[in-house]
Amino acid sequence: MDKVIEIKNLSFNYPDGHQGLKNVDLIVCPGENVAVIGPNGAGKSTLLLHLNGILRGNSTVKICGLVMEDKNLKEIRKRVGLVFQDPEDQLFSLSVFDDVAFGPINMDYSESEVRQRVTRSLEWVGMGGYEQRSPHHLSFGEKKRIAIATVLSLDPEILVIDEPTSNLDPRSKWTLVELLKQFPMTKIIATHDLELVNALCHRTVVMDEGKVVADGDTEVILGDIPLLKDHGLARANL
Amino acid sequence: MKHSFIDEYSDLDSFIHRLDPRTKLIASLAFIAAVVLTPASNWRVFIFYFCIISFLLIISKLPPLYVLKRSLVIFPFVFLIAVFIPFFKEGEIAGSYNIWLWQVSVTYSGLFILANVMVKAWLCILALILLSSTTKLAELLKGLGQLGVPRVMILILSFMYRYIFVLADEVMRMKQARDSRNFGRNRLHQLKTIGNMVGTLFIRSYERGERIYAAMLSRGFDGQIRTMQNLSFRPVDAYFSAIFCLILIFPCVIWW
User: Fold this and answer.
1) Which residue among A21, A103, A151, A231 is least packed, with the fewest CB closer than 10 Å?
2) The dihedral of CA A58, A63, A66, A71: what is its sign?
3) CA dist B252 to A129, B45, B46, B51, B256, Å?
4) Which residues touch B241 (CB under 8 Å, ≥6 apart)?
């Protein structure tokens, strides 16, 4: 059990024939903070959707030793907390409480356990006392943090976040980075915000056109300007 | 973006606000049934019911002007439906008119019924305004759920209320983008643009639906809707229901 994510030779075609992923290999060990960077349409989000079985490609994905199969789906979704990019999609209930409680209720925890988990996860993201608020009335930064709380309430071993800092102003962004730093679990973060990568992740995977084109130390990859330029992540020479 | 909400004043605090949503739902339905079932000739009863609902509105601390404005919305609809009654009802003729080839006449009893329909509709809408303005929609839906309304219906209503404002924002942004590019030219062209906007909105909503479903799946949703029961029916609800029912029946006893 030294690998929390094990993906070998994963390819995925969208129903319209567009190839989302091509022969992707990825192995992640417990406690790693991995950034997945790449230009728009590189397949980052597609890869993330494979981590909890929303999409299934043509190869086996193993999460914490569990093979991605129908019978393991519930357990895998409990272990992998996937936060979507748009908090409007993540927060679909009429109150913050209902949203954060949605996961635990689906796992059939007792009522007191659910309440405990909701309170704890909201406090964790610094949003204690927001239980009865309606998600529509919150600021964008608040929505982002509550979106994270909705998966923290399941105690995931792997936190997977799609574009955590998109649309955030610098202050909210850095508060969020500090918050993410406190979480001890394995984190997979898809983004093209290189400041965030630098501050949070020690390992970086570069994707382009559905393929993994580089995988290594963040310092090395962010220092490799030609690589970043090639894949649309740094300002091209004019 | 700021929108006016269905449950705009549900954050206030009053005796009515603190009642259990189920109590309020059933009391509102009972009130509406009582109003509708009262014979039109019993005008004293309507005054009595008006006093009850006014009293409840006053103790609920809702701004009177807001309630009045909202309640007026119902009149055009009711009027459109009921406007022909005076022409068809038989009885003493109040006025007779020649319109081209036809002679139409209005009767007193018909006018009386029209007025009565308006009064009944207004009393009912006041009760519904009281219900919807003193109860948060989330609570109301929970109440409905516990009263046996199917969970799928509750879920649909809750999604509707959650996303109607998101959609309204999207429409507003699309309008702004359209107007920034000089919307105009001829009618036909305008219609075409509006058609495209409606189509785009439909596709965006559809895709949003897919993403929401994926977000639900990610948190262990398996098609079964589970909820937590956390409404409390307190003694005060029981007292309120009992007293309210007695008051509703009261006019039948003394004026019949």
Assistant:
1) A231
2) negative
3) 49, 8, 11, 16, 6
4) B23, B26, B27
pLDDT in tens, B66-116: 899 989 988 899 888 888 888 877 777 777 777 777 777 888 888 888 888
Nearest to A94 among B161, B211, B217 (CB): B161
Q: Among positive and negative, which fits the CA dihedral B117, B119, B122, B124?
A: negative
- HSE (side-chain half, CA atoms, 13 Å) at A176: 26
Decide if A133 touches B, using CB distance below 8 A.
Answer: no
Is B50 strand, coil or helix? helix
What are the pLDDT digits (tens) for A122-153?
A: 999 999 999 888 888 889 999 999 999 999 99
> Residues of A with CB below 8 A from B163's CB?
88, 92
Q: Could you tell me which of B127, B131, B91, B128 has the C-alpha nearest to residue B111?
A: B91
B219, B221, B232, best to mutate vs chain A, most A CBs in 10 Å: B219
Q: Tokens at residue A223, please?
A: 């220092």
Mean pLDDT of A156-178: 92
Output the six-digit token pair for A98: 């209902």
Where are chain A's structural domains?
31-48+78-230
Q: Are A8 and A59 in contact (CB under 8 A)?
A: yes
Instruction: Just give the CATH number of A31-48+78-230.
Output: 3.40.50.300
CB contact under 8 A, A84 and B227: no
Residues linked to residue A186 through DSSP beta bridges, in sequence order:
A158
Q: From B158, B183, B189, select the one nearest A92 (Cα to Cα).
A: B158
Cα B144 to Cα B146: distance, rounded to the nearest angstrom: 5
Give the best residue of A51, A75, A79, A92 to mutate against chain B (max B CB count within 10 A). A92
A-chain residues within 8 Å CB-CB of B211? 84, 86, 89
User: Residue B150: is its pLDDT beyond 70?
Assistant: yes
CA distances to A34, B5, B39, B75, B89 from B117, in Å? 68, 28, 11, 10, 14
pTM: 0.80
Q: Do A95 and B138 touch (CB under 8 A)?
A: yes
